[in-house]
Amino acid sequence: QPRDILETCLCVTDLDAAEKFYREVLGLEFDARQSGRHVFLRLGQRMFLLFNASESEKTKAAFHPTARTDQ
Question: pTM, whole model, 2 decimals?
């Protein structure tokens, strides 16, 4: 299991499967989610961001990474 992550971002094609892997296999903790678009996970004080690549490309709208949407 990792000990620390400096904020990192991955674009994925299956957001639910990626979240399940990083939470269940690596033990990262849930922080925030915007359904179908992104999931923010935490390891200690560090953030691990997962983005659905196809949804992220649809809009260029800004979002704030600490804004909690649907938990």
Answer: 0.70
